[in-house]
Amino acid sequence: MKTATFERGVHPNDFKELTASKPVQQARIPKRVVIPLSQHIGAPAKVEVTIGDEVKRNQVIGSPPGFVSAPVHASISGKVVAISEFLHPSGRMVTSVVIESDEKDESITLKENPDFMKLSADEIKTCIKEAGIVGLGGATFPTNVKLSPPKEKTIDTVILNGAECEPYLTADHRLMVERPQDIVAGLKLIMKSVGVNKGFIGIEKNKPDAIEAMKKAAANEPGIEVSPLTVKYPQGAEKMLIKALTGREVPGKGGLPMDVGAVVQNVGTALAIYEAVRFGKPLTERVVTVTGKGVKEPKNLMVRIGTLVSELIEECGGLTENAAKVISGGPMMGFAQWSLDVPVIKGTSGILVQSEDEFVSSEEYSACIRCGRCIDVCPMGLNPSMLSILSEKGHYEDAKAYNLFDCFECGSCAFVCPSKRPMVQFVRLAKSQTKPG
Amino acid sequence: MEAKRDQFIVSVSPHVRDEESVRHIMWSVSAALFPALLASFWFFGPKAIFVTALCIISSVLSEYIFQKALNRKITINDGSAFLTGLLLGMNLPPSLPFYVPIVGSVMAVVIVKQLFGGLGYNIFNPALLGRAFLLITWPKAMTIWSAPTAKLTGLDAVTTATPLGILKEEGVGKLMEEFGTKSDLYMSLLTGERAGSLGETSAILLLLGAAYLLYKKYITWHIPLSFLATVGVLAWVFGGKGTLFTGDPVVHLLSGGLILGAFFMATDYVTCPTIRKGQIIFGIGCGALTMLIRLKGGFPEGVMFAILLMNCFAPLIDRGVKPDLFGAVKEKKK
User: Under an 8 A CB cutoff, do A249 and B13 touch?
Assistant: First the structure.
């Protein structure tokens, strides 16, 4: 099978067998949810409820103050018991709404559209916007913004990202196996909303069942092509995926996919779009892969937004004796958590618990020996070795001459570094100490 | 579970790492040199073992003492001092007074490597600069070559000249006289049955080690190939007597320290360019300088000086040659 790919990249073990064959299971409805008002890129939502309010599921609890933002909805029915700063998976404290369940799980009435394929582009985008849909692959960029490019940009291709190149994660994989028709419907809605009739669904070929299911679902759609991708990290990075499927390179120095006529959406996002447009369902739940050697029974769970990680771990049999590190997201780009009292947000694709024996210290690193491995694997064609050395020595401005801001922190350089240098940390440090341009 | 809540490790992504380490790379390179080293023991006897052991022990020891004295982290386990000692030993003639390898090792490890900041910061290849220092300090001792006749017996070997030395001083005619037919000459160059440094001996065993390093991706083809190709072409064009295009590239490719230098020393991570395109420039530079010295210089062999000179250019090459940036913006349109 010929597969599409980008240049360079790395091959970490994927460990997907832990959950790849486990169907998505509905997680228990939590007694309490903590819903951050900022779960997306852009301005945090403005709170629309007060303490003591009774809310129903799917009710708006935070509304967007500007264009680049997204509304936030109640994921259970119950009473607002607190509005305060709570721990967020990013490690920061974020204003969040805490709802205590009344155990009825009652929803507000949703506006269904049985004739959803007849809606206009603007109507589709309005549905998406009102449902609070953001990029579910982890980037959490508001979807309707992404689908509203400026007039001078011509979009001719929509790409659905089913690469799921992060090791361990199988949330997208399971959705593609279990709900291929709905994902294709979501893709058609995206294509309609940007006026395009060419769509790709890119899937790494380590998911043959997903490829088959999606191919079957898209069999009668002449404009949609299911493309197997080489198994390589970071195949699912937006720029890499566009390169693999269309051969186009998103320009550096802040270029966007729309500059090369492409819009990329995650397969989970496509499903959320279908549900929002067809059933009027806001984004209040998502699939989360709870996995790793540190958790007793790894599972794929359909989880209400705001559920605490501690509850998911419990539902998966608890932690093992040697659980050492809890990561929100995948092992390559996810964030390590110091507490289990952190909620699942719209961008949480997985909860990975590593055991002690998997842990690699990032404190014991040594000088760069200039072996060039990082340069060989950097998907952006940067010189990570030089960036790390410049950052280490405090020459942040000089790092810009080495295209510091083109780095999207995929971690491939750190993965291969024989000196075990914290490359991503060096890059983030330099970025924080200087400005693009 | 409650008790565990504040015990999670927090660190920056990525949370998985490849198994490769500096230490593993260094020991693997040392292992790759082992077959050729054994051959040199066979050809030159116990003296060769003595010289190599002396280099390794004094390299590791001087790194230990230096780091201990300066209260630095002891890094002798990373294998780099061992490798420096091993490479220095393989760059020396088999019979030397005992203090010469010691001085060379201290020079290589303490002055060339540690005083510049330790592994990763040195500008020059430590073993090669150590050897250059010895060559200048003891020019006579460093150019007394034993004939490869010891065969582990420990008999005092006859001294003789290296093939490149004969080529330089007395010409190709004499070389043929010494070795018989052309194929006899090639064969002894390949197997290593000839005078020279310990590591200049068996081209075939060195290539075996090099193949292992290439297979394991510890080195890439860029430097060795461009280095060897340049030497081959220049030897063919300018290496003949009087007329162009009559030289014998095979003799030049298999003689001297070229194989050892091209695969094991010019490829030293720290002192060569990091970007593959730059490594090709580096290799061509090494090849051209080697042939300039061999054909026109005062020394019969030029690999060492060629690599050391190109080491100076490595940072400059890295500055000039950039990797292919994804989505490179050719011109600013706005």
Answer: no
CA–CA min distance A165, chain B (Å): 13
Q: Is the pLDDT of residue A194 over 70?
A: yes
Contact B188, B175 (CB under 8 A): no
Q: Give the range among B22-31, B145-154, B230-239 with minimum mean pLDDT.
A: B145-154
CB < 8 Å to B119, chain A? 366-367, 369
How far from A162 is each of A271, A303, A311, A344, CA to CA, in Å? Answer: 12, 20, 28, 21
Give B130 to chain A, closest Cα distance, Å.
Answer: 20
**Whole-angstrom Cα distance, residue A152 to residue B114?**
58
- CA separation for the pair B130, B101 (Å, rounded): 9
Q: CA nearest B118 in A: which residue?
A: A367
Judging contacts by C-beta atoms under 8 Å, the chain B residues touching residue A420 are 17, 21
**What average pLDDT score do residues A260-266 get?**
95
| H/E stretch holding A381 | none
User: Which residues of chain B does A338 touch, with a Cβ-Cβ cutoff of 8 Å?
Assistant: 6, 8, 10
For residues A184-206, average pLDDT: 95
Q: How many Å is the Cα radius of gyration of chain B?
A: 22
- Nearest in space to B268 (alpha carbons), one of B219, B317, B228, B200: B219
Interface contacts A/B by beta carbons within 8 Å: 169
Whether the CB-CB separation of A359 and A325 falls below 8 Å is answered with yes
Closest chain B residue to the Cα of A361, Cα to Cα: B11
Token pair 């597969």 in the structure block, residue: A3
Do A387 and B329 contact (CB within 8 A), yes or no? no
* Helix, strand, or coil (residue B326): coil
Give A-chain residues touching B326 at CB under 8 angstroms: 7, 239, 243, 249, 252, 379-381, 406
φ and ψ at A73, to 5 degrees? Answer: -120, 155
- B39-77 pLDDT, tens digit per residue, is 988 888 888 899 999 999 999 999 999 999 999 999 999
Q: Under a CB-based contact definition with an 8 Å cutoff, are residues A97 and A47 in contact?
A: yes
Structural domains of chain A, with CATH = 25-110+282-358 (3.10.20.600), 114-279 (3.40.50.11540), 373-432 (no CATH)
Distance from CA of A419 to the nearest CA of B (A): 6
Q: How many CB atoms lie within 10 A of CB A45?
A: 26
Write down the residue that tokens 């700063």 correspond to: A85
Is the pLDDT at B334 greater than 90? The verdict is no
Question: Per residue in A71-84, pLDDT tens?
Answer: 999 999 999 999 99
The pLDDT, as a whole number, for residue B152 is 56
Are the C-beta atoms of A136 and A276 separated by less than 8 Å?
A: no
What is the rounded CA–CA span in Å between residue A206 and residue A422?
Answer: 29
DSSP secondary structure of B200-244 = GS-HHHHHHHHHHHHHTTSS-SHHHHHHHHHHHHHHHHHSSSSST
Give the span between the Cα atoms of A388 and A427, in whole angstroms: 7
How much is the pLDDT for B145? 85
Mean pLDDT of A28-51: 94
Q: Is B86 exposed, middle or buried (0-12, 13-18, 19+ CB in 10 A)?
A: buried
> What angle do helix axes A267-279 and A180-193 make, rounded to 10 degrees?
80
